[in-house]
Design goal:
Length: about 375
């Protein structure tokens, strides 16, 4: 059976056709995947403009879906279910995908499956590598999220840590803007950092020692001792402010920023981010007796994060899984995979589900 996946949570309009393989160890295959990026539109504004994003989704959604169907050599007659990102994300953007998917499913008499965007990122790992050795500790790190999940068994996602302020990708994007590197900032800093010295500037790494008074109700309690639970939360706003101060000081002294200095700042910033991400992920994995580590989401495209994660994995004897670059940033293939997971668990949507900007994920609901 084929399933059509739709993703419009932020600034990519995406559709994909996914098939089932019949192999429980590697359950799904990508028949086609199409992503229409809006980067060129938002670059001009230095970040995603929600109203422009939703309007562009309206323009692109039909064509992107037609292209995905054609790319798989399928028509709507071959599709058995439709999965769509319900949230979290920009509500206007989400609404385009949700309305489109529901209308299409209704008109064809097909089941529609609402999918949590982060379940999609987690399942990008299964899509690429097959079922991970479980329990798995999975870090989802993107422009909107930095969250650590324990996946004790397939389709069961338990939130164990999250950022208290900015997401790592958001920090990349803001620092890149500050350095005049454009949007999105992650790839630009990644590239430039290769020419810089990663200890040229000593930026602080925030360690949280206080309890999270605003912990979302869905955080899994009791999986980690309280002091470890605090330690595996993330914080990136202090680092971002430190870079801002450093750049202002440098500019006050010498006008512009010479390119070698920009590369040093990029490399030094990136070292702190990557260490913060991996220290917590590996610490949580150790406490949870995880048998594997997964890293997904846009920032998992980062070359230093990938290289260091693999190096640490070898050192600790833990296999580390990252998606191929095409599946690390937002796409609909991962939404199709998570949709298949829910469909086969008998969890299709009631017709009245709606787009939810701050949808929570804990034990896939
Ligand atoms: O998963 P994604 O496409 O969208 C969200 O769900 O947020 O992630 C986009 C984020 C952006 O912040 C972008 O700067 C970051 O992923 N990113 C990277 C790299 N490629 C994309 N960050 C660091 N290094 C990269 N190579
Ligand atoms: Zn994403």
């Amino acid at each position: 059976m084929y399933l059509l996946g739709i993703e419009t949570s932020c600034d990519e309009t995406a559709a994909a056709v996914i098939s089932e393989t019949g192999d429980a160890a590697r359950p799904w295959a990508i028949a086609s995947t199409v992503v229409a990026s809006q980067n060129a539109i938002h670059r001009e504004w230095g970040g995603v403009v929600p109203e422009l994003a939703s309007r562009q989704h309206v323009r692109d959604i039909c064509g992107v879906t037609e292209q995905a169907l054609a790319g798989a050599g399928t028509t709507l007659d071959d599709i058995g279910a439709i999965a769509v990102t319900q949230g979290p994300g920009l509500v206007g953007s989400l609404l385009v995908g949700v309305s489109f998917a529901k209308a299409l499913a209704w008109s064809r008499g097909l089941p529609v499956v609402p999918v949590h965007h982060l379940a999609g990122h987690i399942e990008s790992l299964t899509l690429a590598h097959g079922e991970l050795p479980m329990p798995a500790a999975v870090l989802v790190v993107s422009g909107g999220h930095t969250s650590l999940y324990l996946v004790p068994s397939p389709g069961d996602y338990r939130l164990i840590g999250r950022t208290r302020d900015d997401a790592a990708g958001e920090a990349y994007d803001k620092v890149a803007k500050l350095l005049g590197l454009g949007y999105p900032g992650g790839p630009a800093i990644d590239r430039l950092a290769r020419q810089g010295r990663d200890r040229a500037v000593e930026f602080p790494s925030t360690r949280l020692t206080h309890a999270d008074r605003n912990a979302p109700a869905d955080t899994s309690r009791g999986l980690l001792p309280p002091d470890v639970a605090r330690r595996v939360d993330f914080s990136f706003s202090g680092l971002k402010t430190a870079v801002l101060r450093y750049v202002r000081d440098a500019q006050a002294h010498g006008g512009g920023l010479p390119e070698p200095l920009v590369a040093d700042i990029a490399a030094s910033f990136q070292r702190v981010v990557v260490e913060a991400l991996l220290d917590r992920t590996f610490e949580a994995a150790r406490w949870l007796n995880a048998r594997s580590i997964g890293i997904a989401g846009g920032v998992s495209a980062n070359s230093r994060l990938r290289a260091e994660a693999e190096e640490r994995g070898r050192r600790y004897g833990l296999p580390v899984f990252v998606p191929p670059l095409s599946l690390s940033t937002d796409n609909a293939a991962m939404i199709g995979a998570a949709g298949f997971r829910r469909l086969r668990a008998g969890r299709t949507g009631d017709w009245d589900f709606n787009a939810e900007a701050s949808l929570r994920l804990n034990v896939e609901g």
